[in-house]
Specification:
Length: about 325
């Protein structure tokens, strides 16, 4: 059983919402110890590096991490720290659940969708990125492998089986992207045949977006390649009230990093306005992953009760309270 985890407070709203999640983990009596390390802009300002060796070593040692959003400076040729972390630790599966809570600003009720996004290949593999000297042409390469497709599809079906889910939808664009998306779809059909008890569906990504907005209740587990998964999971967050409600787990064979789906939200950073629910929900995912299902359920109940009662709601939830008040409302329910 894990007791020491790595914590990356991150940039922008990160430190405030991660601190909220840590207070809640402690109040719930999860018995965790923390190694705090830096990454992103805050690491660059302190250590001159976006991803210091010490951070990588600590992540490697503890294997489990809770992470705030990181700002990747634009320009200057910096590659995304999130993409680097996912590739470095082989965090091939990005699991992004969205669940309706009453009392949010969401247009829908009863949503319960998990997006399983391939996290290391595709358009985000970082390969072949060039811009011509005169700036008139740019290229980037998308690479998917049979093994990478098999791994993510098996992961999605195993998750569906474990959680008693009914349907897995493989999202693709094989009609146009015949090689890359075509390979993903071919493997999806092979893997689907191994799970006859689960309904399998295939859907083209643009149509998927339309159907998610029209009839989200028809979806259960979505599995897809990296870029489509990035976009679709934000769309799904919008179905349940916005990015403040959407957690994500980055899972590999030996390591896992739990975080919010959203970024560092510079527009509201330092103003005590952020909804910490996304990172609290990521902490719940983390507890489930490390075998603390009871504590995960207690925290989820406290969070659900806070949101559904409208107690000390943040602005994105339709209230007028800040991060600290909302966090206290959740803490009060864990006494
Ligand atoms: P963002 O996700 O930070 O913000 C988008 C919108 O959602 C903003 O209006 C923001 O105020 C709102 N929002 C986000 N989280 C919220 C919360 N917890 N409560 C209330 N409102 C919330 O996306 P943006 O502005 O495109 O990116 C900002 C920075 O974050 C960039 O540097 C980007 O690279 C980075 N980023 C990092 C990610 C990560 O570390 N996993 C993921 C996505 C972006
Ligand atoms: Mg994204």
């Amino acid at each position: 059983m894990t007791s020491r985890i790595t914590v990356i407070p991150g940039d922008g709203i990160g430190p405030d919402i991660v601190d909220a999640a840590i207070q809640i983990l402690d109040k719930a009596g999860c018995g965790l110890e923390y190694d705090y390390v830096d990454a992103g802009l805050s690491a660059f300002e302190k250590h001159g590096e976006l991803l210091p060796d010490h951070t990588l070593a600590t992540l490697d040692k503890n294997r489990i991490a809770l992470k705030g959003p990181l700002t990747t400076p634009m320009g200057g040729g910096f590659s995304s720290i999130n993409v680097s972390l996912r590739q470095h630790f082989g965090l091939f599966a990005n699991v992004r659940p969205v669940v309706s809570f009453q009392g949010t600003q969401a247009r829908y009720q009863d949503i319960d969708i998990i997006t399983v996004r391939e996290n290391t290949e595709g358009m985000y593999s970082g390969l072949g990125q060039t811009t011509s000297r005169d700036g008139s042409e740019a290229e980037a390469m998308s690479k998917v492998t049979r093994q990478g497709c098999q791994r993510i599809l098996h992961f999605a079906y195993e998750l569906a089986r474990r959680e008693g889910r009914k349907k897995v939808t493989a999202v693709h664009k094989a009609n146009i992207l015949k090689s890359t998306s075509g390979l993903f779809l071919a493997v999806a059909r092979e893997v689907a045949a191994e799970y006859p008890e689960i309904e399998s569906e295939e859907m083209i990504v643009d149509a998927t977006c339309m159907k998610l907005v029209m009839n989200p209740e028809n979806f259960d587990v979505l599995v897809t390649t990296n870029l489509f998964g990035d976009i679709i999971s934000d769309l799904c967050a919008g179905l349940v009230g916005g990015l403040g409600m959407a957690p994500g787990a980055n899972i590999g064979a030996n390591h896992a990093i739990f975080e919010a789906v959203h970024g560092s939200a510079p527009d509201i950073a330092g103003k005590n306005l952020a909804n910490p629910s996304s990172v609290i929900l990521a902490a719940v995912q983390m507890l489930e992953h490390i075998g603390q299902a009871d504590n995960a359920a207690r925290i989820l109940t406290a969070l659900r009760d806070t949101i559904e009662s409208g107690d000390r709601a943040t602005a994105d939830l339709g209230g007028q309270h800040g991060t600290t008040d909302f966090t206290q409302a959740v803490l009060d329910r864990l006494s």
